[in-house]
Specification:
The chain is mainly α and 59 residues long. The chain has 1 helix and no strands. The relative contact order is 0.06. It is elongated, with a radius of gyration of 31 Å.
């Protein structure tokens, strides 16, 4: 029984060590976030809605 408990403790320590090293590697290998460039020139406007829409359907 004592060997089983020690084995479980050792496995949990190894998993924890692997998780820590994996998190450090992800932080080290992830590129830094880049901001979007500012908009250049005039932004395109949305088309104006037509106010003369007819609700009658021709059929």
């Amino acid at each position: 029984m004592a060997d089983g408990h020690n084995a479980v403790v050792q496995i949990m320590q190894l998993i924890g060590h692997d998780k820590e090293s994996e998190e450090l590697a992800v932080q080290r290998l992830t590129p830094p976030l880049r901001a979007l460039p500012p908009p250049v020139g005039k932004q395109p406007s949305l088309p104006k809605p037509r106010e003369e829409l007819d609700d009658n359907i021709p059929f």
